[in-house]
Amino acid sequence: MLQDLRGFAADNLVSARLVLANGSAITVSGSQNPDLFWAIRGAGHNFGIATSFQVKIDDDKAKWTIAIFVFTKEKVKGFFNTWNRLEDEYPDRGGLLVVIGALARNPDIDADHVSYSGSPS
Predict the structure, then answer these.
(1) With pLDDT > 70 as the criterion, what percentage of the chain qualifies?
(2) For 26-81, what is each residue's pLDDT tens digit?
(3) Under a CB-based contact definition with an 8 Å cutoff, are residues 105 and 117 in contact?
(4) Whole-number Cα distances in Å, 25 to 9, 28, 48, 50
(5) How many CA atoms lie within 13 A of 44 on its CB side?
(6) Distance between CA 20 and CA 59 in Å, rounded?
(7) Is the dihedral of CA 23, 28, 32, 35 positive or negative?
(8) How many CA atoms lie within 13 A of 60 on its CB side?
């Protein structure tokens, strides 16, 4: 939630303990196995299994929050119309705001529109 101020989580990684494919356990950091440390911070995946890690933390008590809202399909358009209006009225002053949408059909809420679970034709 503080990505705009502090960077990605991987940017704050100090070191990690990895188990490699050959079963050996190593420490990676800026001074120990630095190439592998660079790799696990964003070059890809499958470099090893992280069993522990050390990250930088911020002690400035930055304020953030997370909220989850669920809307039925009839309310989604109104939600985004309101959101856009509020964005125009109250511009973002440098904070990070993330909206992630997921469409899920719940038969308890909408019995007429359930997920198809058959084979594609």
Answers:
(1) 60
(2) 999 999 999 999 998 887 677 888 888 898 877 666 666 666 777 777 888 888 88
(3) no
(4) 23, 10, 9, 9
(5) 5
(6) 33
(7) positive
(8) 8
Question: Helix and strand tally (H, E) in the chain?
Answer: 3, 3
CATH number of 3-55: 3.30.465.10
Q: What is the rounded CA–CA span in Å between residue 84 and residue 4?
A: 21
Instruction: Please name the amino acid found at residue 89.
Output: E
Write out the two tokens for 91.
């511009």
User: How many Cβ atoms from other residues are within 10 Å of residue 104's Cβ?
Assistant: 7
CA-CA distance, 97 to 94, in Å (whole number)? 9
